[in-house]
Specification:
Order of helices and strands: EHEHHHEHEHEHEHHEHE
Strand order of the largest sheet: 1-2-3-4-5-6-7-8
Number of helices: 10
Strand content: 15-25%
Helix content: 25-40%
CATH class: Alpha Beta
Number of strands: 8
Length: about 240
């Protein structure tokens, strides 16, 4: 991933949990999407990394999680499609998988931008890192990027995106992309959480690139008539 050297926006297809916890579904999505994206991103977690057993969505997290062996298989399969492979990591379990597989880079979820222990573990991987810049303060971003710069991180991408789904147009606030490009030396991206069923789902990422975004992250699915889980970890 060398976003700043691309002639066109770097496209990240966010599979997230659209696979419904089924590795065959995940591979099908990868095969359908890889040709039209620069990178495919997953959310790599265990239920215990995200919540305590009494949390309402804990059982859903368990249904969506993959085993270490399944992640190794899926990352290898995706890398073979000539596409970069990224994943959100939420703890040491995900970091250890990133360390042992062909993953291209990792993303730090908004909720973990101030998780300095996780950032130090990620910095030690020596991989490109995407940092969520939506829902974070300038101080949090400065501290996070400083930790990554102290490590062996070859590239940092700041990914802005309003942390709610579906994002209303009035909440998109694409003007913040201008502000981020003025304040930071890193490339700036935009993660769209607009409802995929409206025409603006196509328009907003285009507007974001016009506003200066060098990368665009968009959630994807093969069939919108199959709603599947409504569980979404925004990042």
């Amino acid at each position: 991933m060398v976003v700043s050297q691309q002639e066109s926006p770097y496209i990240i297809a966010e599979i997230a949990n659209t696979h419904e916890g089924n590795i065959k579904n995940a591979k099908s999505l990868v095969s359908a999407i890889a040709e039209n994206a620069d990178a495919i991103k997953f959310q790599m977690f265990t239920a215990d990394e995200l919540a305590v057993p009494s949390f309402p969505d804990y059982d859903a997290y368990q249904e969506l999680q993959f085993t270490r062996e399944e992640w190794t298989e899926l990352i290898s399969f995706t890398a073979d499609q000539d596409v970069d492979v990224f994943a959100d990591v939420f703890g040491n379990w995900g970091v250890s998988i990133a360390e042992q597989t062909e993953i291209s880079g990792v993303k730090i979820h908004t909720a973990d931008v101030s998780n300095h222990a996780l950032l130090r573990s990620v910095a030690a991987l020596g991989l490109p890192v995407v940092i969520s810049a939506g829902g974070t303060t300038a101080l949090e971003l400065r501290e996070a990027t400083a930790i990554l710069e102290d490590g062996d991180v070859p590239e940092i991408l700041l990914m802005y995106g309003f942390q709610a789904y579906p994002t209303q147009l009035d909440d998109s606030n694409l003007s913040r992309i201008h502000k981020l490009t003025r304040e930071w030396e890193y490339p700036i991206g935009y993660a769209s959480h607009v409802d995929g069923g409206v025409s603006e789902a196509v328009d907003v990422p285009v507007w974001a690139t016009a506003a200066g975004a060098e990368a665009v992250e968009v959630h994807v699915t093969e069939d919108r008539s199959r709603e599947g889980t409504r569980l979404l970890l925004l990042a």
